[in-house]
């Protein structure tokens, strides 16, 4: 049996709790040992479940530890890591979680998971200097309309169908969670300035403005989406102050 075939059989047996240990494995009696392999299979499952618990702590709190572990175990059976780095595991968990609780009264759980995943991605994004208000003030105001911005690598912009960011915020710092006062979708900006991840709920016009800039629009083009032209400075300064902007690029695109 080739090495590749052996590894494939080993991985398949790890995924199926009912499967016997691979024939190529040997215990003390020089024969496959189901009990020893079951211990290894369980250790792998526990490690993956623990990685999901660490990545999605608010989701875990919302559904309870036992329910979350059962959901995480089901996910781990169907989704094995594609990287040896566990911080990359579970990025596709939000859709799985949303489907898993479809029959429960938790329409926001998938969006909360998407926000928590964005938080982790922002935390582990590459290092880069963020532009500051001092940098912004140093530009000629007449040159800014034609300028474009480059977002910081940690920036994540989310459009959520539920008030998941408010639900997430209500579960921070051990606070007793409460229902959001208004049930509506939210747009969220996740940034990491000076090593601290921050989550901000954007007003609808601010979210459209930021997305236009992320798509490569000039500041003037993005400003055209604002219902009130006087709000341009507020949104522009807000993005820079949040650490979302890596650089401001003057001039037209070549």
The amount of beta strand, in percent, is: 5-15%
For this structure, the CATH topology of the largest domain is Outer Surface Protein A, domain 3
Given helix and strand content, the structural type is: mainly alpha
CATH architecture of the largest domain: Alpha-Beta Complex
CATH class of the largest domain: Alpha Beta
* Large-scale geometry: elongated
The main β sheet shows up as: 3 strands, antiparallel
Please bin the fraction of helical residues: 40-55%
Keywords:
254 residues; Outer Surface Protein A, domain 3; 2 domains; single chain
Topology, please?
Layout: H1 3-15, H2 34-55, H3 57-63, H4 65-78, H5 93-100, H6 109-123, H7 133-137, E1 148-151, E2 156-160, H8 164-170, E3 186-193, E4 196-202, H9 204-214, H10 219-223, H11 232-241, E5 245-249
Helix pairs in contact: 2-4, 3-4, 3-6, 5-6, 6-8
